[in-house]
Amino acid sequence: MASLALASLALANLAAAKHALGRALAILVLASLAALPGSGLAAEECTNTGSFSGWLKGFKKEASAAGISERTISNALAGIELDPKIIARDRRQGFFAQDFGTFSKKLATNNRVTNGRKKIDKRKKHFERAEQEFGVPPEVLTAFWALESDFGKGMGDYSILRALATLAYDCRRKELFTGELIEALKILDKGWVKPSDMIGSWAGEMGQTQFLPKHYLEHAVDYDGDGTRNLFASEPDIIGSTAAFIKHLGWRRGEPWLQEVRVPGKLPWEKADLEVKLPRSQWADWGVTAADGAPLTSDDLPASLLLPMGHKGPAFLAYPNFNIYVEWNNSLTYCITAAYLATRIAGADSMQGRDREIPILSVDEAKDVQRILTKRGYDVGKIDGIIGAKTRSAVKEMQLKYGLPADSFPTPELLSRLRNG
């Protein structure tokens, strides 16, 4: 990220990149920012006042007061200019409006499964070291690595310093990005990379697993022994640092993270919710099995049933380690895709049920659902056509009211019911 990240500033936690394979980079950018409390995608619009040059002069003083050397400040910020395109892009993010089937098919590809396994073979000793030290399996690391940048092919082509300066000047999330720009300068001050190396995402995330500067500074490790921590070019550093960050997020050694399952025709569908955690034995008692029909392990390991396309689509049990995906990225669609890709790299079969004919609402129809729910007193957040946690919760309540399977997945049938009162 890690960037997938999150921001630990009291924080707990793309539009298209250059080509289809690089698209994951933009994804995580959006993800990490969406995960920041008080700075989500629905942030209120605001108006910038004052010149960029005036802001930059004040920022340089702030950076100096934070202990950044004058040499670094000069080298990093000389000639830096505002980029209005970044501000415009930040205010029109909508990639996560895609449904899970479309999203996962584009990103959790067989090519990424193959390349993930090749990377594990190539860097076996570093992955083994990382798993021994931090407990994070190679498959989990390579899945994030694949989605974030396709193993370095799609890190982005923006000046990170210019992007951070632009967003720090902008009124929308000034405090957050001012802090991240300070952290980026600290990285330069340590000599880990040069300003010219800092090429990446339009939202300031950097390196092959897209760390925000704060996470880079706090969690990067030197795994190649050269005395620096280079997440742009050193694969050993990337492996160790990503594992360290995931461990920091709460990874539990030796436990699963996600399992595709098969659900029976009848189930208390309202229990299918990330917030509902039941012993795996309870899901087994209700008739949930492994995807191939084999019985589930009947034990007390907490698990949530996830139905990203409703009760007729693919189904997953999410275990405690799935929590780190939610910390890494605020989009449930992204989280399930990343976790599923990791299971595929680890040897799981391809997803069942993803290609079934399941009626999907258009973005405009999803907005209509949100508008109607808002008029009925539900808080769905921003009316943007993105089915987030608040919208899913309101949908579930209406499904229960109408006697529909309460799987939190909005359907044309539900929309019709809502329109007709």
Structure description:
By secondary structure, the chain is mostly helical. It has 3 domains: 253 residues, no CATH class; 88 residues, no CATH class; 57 residues, no CATH class. The protein contains 18 helices and 7 strands. The strands form 2 sheets. A 5-stranded antiparallel β-sheet has the order 4-6-7-3-5. A two-stranded antiparallel ribbon has the order 1-2. Helix 8 crosses helix 15. The longest helix has 16 residues. It is globular.
Instruction: Give the strand content.
Output: 5-15%
The average pLDDT score comes to: 89
- Discrete helix count: 18
Q: What level of helicity do the residues show?
A: 40-55%
Q: Order of helices and strands, N to C?
A: HHHHHHHHEHHEHHEEHEEEHHHHH
Q: Biggest sheet: strands, sense, closure?
A: 5 strands, antiparallel
Domain unit count: 3
How widely separated are the two ends? 44 Å
Envelope shape: globular
Spatial order of strands in the largest sheet: 4-6-7-3-5
Enumerate the spans where pLDDT stays under 50 for 5 or more consecutive residues: 2-43
Which value, in Å, is the CA radius of gyration?
22 Å
Broad structural category: mainly alpha
Number of E-type strands? 7
